[in-house]
Amino acid sequence: MTSQRAHQRTNVVWLGSPSFPEAAKPLLRDEQLRSNLRRATGTIRERRLAVTGELDDWEELRTAGEAVKRRTLRHLDHYLEQLEASVVRAGGQVHWAADAEEANRIVTRLVRETGEREVVKVKSMATQEIGLNEALAEAGIDAYETDLAELIVQLADDRPSHILVPAIHRNRAEIREIFTAAMGRYGRPAPEDLTDDPAALAEAARLHLREKFLRAKVAVSGANFASADTGTVAVVESEGNGRMCLTLPETLITVMGIEKVVPAFSDLEIFLQLLPRSSTGERMNPYTSLWTGTTEGDGPSTFHLVLLDNGRTATLADATGRQALACIRCSACLNVCPVYERTGGHAYGSVYPGPIGAVLTPQLVGVENAASLPFASTLCGACYDACPVKIDIPEVLTHLRAQAVESRRARRKVPSAEALVMKAAAAVFATPGRLAAAQKAAGLGGRFLGDTVSRLPGPLSGWSDARDAPVPPRESFRAWWERTEGGTDEEER
Question: Residues 308, 254: contact at Cβ < 8 Å?
Answer without folding.
Answer: no
